Records
---
Amino acid sequence: MPDFDEIREHKDVVRYAILRGLDKKYKKQKQFLLDGNLKSVDFKKRKPYSREVFQFRIDKKFRAFCFLDGKILKVFKIDDHQ
């Protein structure tokens, strides 16, 4: 599994989370990732695997998409999973 020390998000991701009331849930899942509890957020690589894009669960409906840049996990999108 990937190793990262920090999580950063694009400004549009923060705005999207706030508008949909996901900001508290997102922060909680972000802390789980930083603590190394990847299983509880269902952190996994997306297909096609060669693109190196990962996802993690925010709640039952929303997922965050990210990629690794060195030791930094960069979240570039939150999307409706359903």
---
Amino acid sequence: MSETQRTDPPVSVEEGEVIELANEYAAVEVRKVHTHNGVRLEIIAPRLGYGIRLCPLELETLTWQQHETFSRFLETPFGPEGEAE
């Protein structure tokens, strides 16, 4: 089984219920939300004040990625240098 295949059974979560994930480097809150464009997964980094809502297709594309892709994200975690705020 490749590392990208699911190995744990699904966990039941009520709609709108916040799930908090944290370690020594980061903390995020995730929850399922309904918008006028359909269901989304909302991910919020409360310490940083960032957040995003992703549709099922956007989430699925994450499963296509290798871990190296995410490592490259961390090279410039707040965007390319010199980018205007």
---
Amino acid sequence: MPLHPKVEAVLRAQPIGEWAFLGPQGGRIKENYALLCLKADQSKIGVPECGLHGFRRFFATNMLRAGVDVETVRQWGGWKSLETMLRYLADVVVKDSVRAMDEAVRRLAAS
């Protein structure tokens, strides 16, 4: 996944440990705190608010489109089952499936 050079620099500067970033009390960042920070930052820069799941979906969609197998994407995304992941990505998978079918038909017609 390509990263902006400034983001990459920040991530590389983090000490290697159990968590890349620590919450305000140390330890793991809780979802509520991350969402609060995300909404505050979105408000500051004038970006429409979206939840944390949008990033998870963006990541999974891009990994699938890049050819990473579904089971690996499921594991990376933390979904407990393939069925749950596919329900979560259903409309994306359908759109990609339609595009793939259109491409297959185009190739067949050209041969």
